[in-house]
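YM 10:42: Fas apoptotic inhibitory molecule 1 sequence, as discussed on the call
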Amino acid sequence: LEKMTDLVAVWEVALSDGVHKIEFEHGTTSGKRVVYVDGKEEIRREWMFKLVGKETFTVGATKTKAAINIDAVSGFAYEYTLEINGKSLKKYMENRLKTTNTWILNLGGTDYRVVLEKDTMDVWCNGQKMETAGEFVEDGTETHFTVADHNCCIKAVSSGKRKEGIIHTLIVDNREVPEAVE
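YM 10:58: structure's back
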């Protein structure tokens, strides 16, 4: 089994539907290029005469656009950069920190990753988009949903400061869950 002998890069990408592993094989002698997403082969090209270039594919349930750029650095050295939605991985993740909130919680011995997309108010849990019910309350809004028979609520209240904007808090069974840093 010659699988993964030319592995040159591995990235972990946190999206709303989960953290995805992207692996890239580049055979600089054979010109082979293989892209794996979560262990599943997405692209395979054999005998590419051009060793530099770009491979594009999608990631996750949301079919997020991704691309691997292959650039020659010097001689036979190559640099591999991952882009998500047209941005470098670093820029994408920095932007994602502003547009999403993520919480990791354990209920009954099972880990759950809850993600709020602030622009759409969509809530994801372990790769599934959740059914939610929103309501206006005295100090802001509440978005209600259920995870494993537990009542969950994301409260959105104004911080009172323009730079901070709205503060989102996840409450599960009347207990506040601290936000995760990914």
